[in-house]
């Protein structure tokens, strides 16, 4: 079931959501909502379709109220355009339908600069709030500060960022304010485990060569430097994914398993509630390169 409108208020979105749920309950009683979180996603221009694709299929693993924020700060007029949907799935044969809620808000003009006051009334009380930010966050901006202020965890993918490793220093300023996850970091997990299995043989390593994205290379070097307690030199060979690692010129065996897809990576981050001190230390070491 879906509702769409232009130039709406937040109260109007809340009423539409209540009306959809009421109509569905009348047709199919009872309506079982099992939201375990509020999931915010900031999708600037160029990221909307990618964001929707990644979020598809997450409802069964993480039933939530999902709020997609599509900022259009250069729009000629201020306002909010909204689409509200109820989506359903059956967890098993004969089981009752479970409903999740998707709220898509197009924030036009000045509305794009005040997302915190817009989303706060739409959060589900007493449930954790996860914020997925696509692209490089505008560090120091009002928009980022507001949304980090209402979120329990910020999820980024530094693979999407230019000019690495410099942005890691700005990301680190957010660590005291919210738990941070980086999907680029999650993509290095198999290789970190493989390198750790070589201990203590890697205790004296001086350099690491990584064939991967820039984010994976810098984070892997940062991890190794932070674990060894000293700088390690990085030689980076650009690739679309992490495919090879060598330490002091010696190739590291390929780790077992297959790399997870983007939806699985995001799903794993939505299972995490605490700060990752190892990731934070690795990010700081990467920024110090």
Task: Extract low-pLDDT stretches.
Answer: none
Radius of gyration: 21 Å
Query: Which term fits the overall shape?
Result: elongated
Helix content: 25-40%
- Specify the number of helices: 10
Strand content: 15-25%
Return the domain count: 2
Overall mean pLDDT score? 89
The strand count comes to 13
Encode the helix/strand succession as letters.
EHEEHEEEHEHEHEHHEHEEEHH
**Cα-to-Cα separation, first versus last residue:** 51 Å
Give the biggest beta sheet. Answer: 9 strands, mixed
Structural class: alpha/beta
- Give the oligomer, counting copies of the same chain as homo and different chains as hetero: single chain
Description of the structure:
- With 289 residues, the chain is an alpha/beta fold.
- Strand 8, helix 5 and strand 9 form a beta-alpha-beta unit.
- The protein has 2 domains: 2-151, no CATH class; 186-287, no CATH class.
- The N and C termini lie far apart (51 Å).
- Strands 1, 2, 3, 4, 5, 6, 7, 8 and 9 form a 9-stranded mixed β-sheet that branches. Strands 11-10-12-13 form a 4-stranded mixed β-sheet, covered by helices on one side.
- The longest helix is centred in the first third of the chain and has 18 residues, at 10-27.
- The protein has 10 helices and 13 strands.
- Helix 8 packs across helix 10 (277-287).
């Amino acid at each position: 079931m879906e509702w769409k409108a232009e130039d709406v208020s937040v109260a109007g979105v809340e009423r539409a959501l209540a009306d959809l749920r009421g109509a569905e309950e009348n047709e199919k009683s009872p309506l079982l909502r099992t939201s375990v979180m509020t999931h915010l996603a900031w999708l600037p221009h160029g990221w909307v379709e990618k964001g929707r694709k990644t979020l598809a299929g997450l409802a069964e693993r993480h039933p939530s109220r999902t709020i997609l924020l599509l900022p259009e700060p250069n729009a000629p007029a201020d306002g909010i355009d909204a689409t509200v949907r109820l989506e359903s799935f059956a967890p098993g044969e004969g089981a009752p339908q479970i409903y999740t809620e998707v709220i898509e808000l197009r924030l036009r003009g000045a509305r794009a600069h005040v997302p915190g006051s817009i989303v706060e009334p739409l959060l589900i009380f007493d449930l954790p709030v996860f914020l997925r930010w696509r692209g490089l966050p505008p560090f120091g901006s009002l928009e980022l500060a507001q949304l980090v202020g209402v979120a329990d965890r910020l999820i980024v993918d530094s693979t999407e960022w230019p000019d690495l490793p410099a942005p890691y220093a700005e990301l680190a300023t957010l660590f005291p304010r919210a738990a941070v996850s980086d999907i680029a970091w999650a993509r290095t997990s198999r290789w970190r485990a493989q390198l750790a299995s070589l201990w203590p043989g890697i205790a004296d390593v001086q350099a690491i060569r990584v064939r991967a994205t820039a984010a994976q290379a810098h984070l892997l070097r940062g991890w190794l430097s932070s674990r060894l307690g000293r700088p390690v030199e990085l030689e980076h060979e650009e690739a679309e994914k992490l495919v090879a690692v060598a330490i002091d010129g010696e190739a590291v065996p390929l780790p077992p398993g297959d790399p997870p897809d983007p939806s699985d990576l995001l799903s794993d981050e939505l299972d995490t509630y605490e700060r990752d001190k190892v990731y934070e230390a690795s990010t700081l070491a990467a920024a110090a390169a």
